[in-house]
Amino acid sequence: xxxxxxxxxxxxxxxxxxxxxxxxxxxxxxxxxxxxxxxxxxxxxxxxxxxxxxxxxxxxxxxxxxxxxxxxxxxxxxxxxxxxxxxxxxxxxxxxxxxxxxxxxxxxxxxxxxxxxxxxxxxxxxxxxxxxxxxxxxxxxxxxxxxxxxxxxxxxxxxxxxxxxxxxxxxxxxxxxxxxxxxxxxxxxxxxxxxxxxxxxxxxxxxxxxxxxxxxxxxxxxxxxxxxxxxxxxxxxxxxxxxxxxxxxxxxxxxxxxxxxxxxxxxxxxxxxxxxxxxxxxxxxxxxxxxxxxxxxxxxxxxxxxxxxxxxxxxxxxxxxxxxxxxxxxxxxxxx
Length: 336
Hints:
It holds the Pfam family TRM13. tRNA methylase which 2'-O-methylates cytidine(4) in tRNA(Pro) and tRNA(Gly)(GCC), and adenosine(4) in tRNA(His). The protein is α/β, with parallel strands linked by helices. Among the domains are: 1-36, no CATH class; 146-320, Rossmann fold, CATH 3.40.50. It has twelve helices and nine strands. The strands form three sheets. A five-stranded parallel sheet has the order 7-6-5-8-9, with helices on both faces. The protein has a two-stranded antiparallel ribbon with strand order 1-2. The protein starts with a helix and ends in a 20-residue tail after the last strand.
């Protein structure tokens, strides 16, 4: 045990009240993540800025960066169009009303901390006034549709993860889509029979696009309860324990997972969606991802474009929203 612990990193983690459990690197008391290093030696990776690399290793790293293979594969896809949903056209129309620079959470915090108490209270009043003027006609709607009873009553495959709070949230999202007529429950259990298919009209929905899909269990619930036959999961990260395996076991269900940033997705260029009526869903679409998803769905359409029948998005992390991505900026008026 002593030999094993002696090989561990000596960096102390205050929140966990223990030392780092990673193996230390040679000639150091720390692991690669916590080794002492000069900030000037490390620079953001040009392919994936979420991690840094030693400047002396940059040339070697860019040839082997884990994101490189994905980037090369994406560049060959018709639906990949860099920054198509970023909102640059609106910014150009606004001219000097906004800036191209990214406003980080740290910059926002510094601005708030620099305010006096009276300035802060004035800001709160402005926010409340704007919110009250826009959201006064928005009603809360928490639904538990009968179609989702197999999930509410835990009548699902026991291998599927079940957390009650998530199931209730997902059920309400789907229930509200059903309430506005965007979803219709199949008549017999959860599978559509041939007679149901013959009865479907032009307003029927056969596909779902889930933005920020993560593991995809919102779509799993939708497919179980509403008989959706085409599934498109949009997610830029890689996840384990995904719903994909269970979804692929469904008869006649077509599944396509697109590992791409929503900002770069041209939904009109997805050939298998041409002319197909679909619903768009998203749960916990963080910050600007909500705006990007709306712009992706509401972009200019032609005869071959997918047909949007309904959209339901649960937002989160509003403090991460950016003016550059904001979809309704043309309706905002400014005064001198």
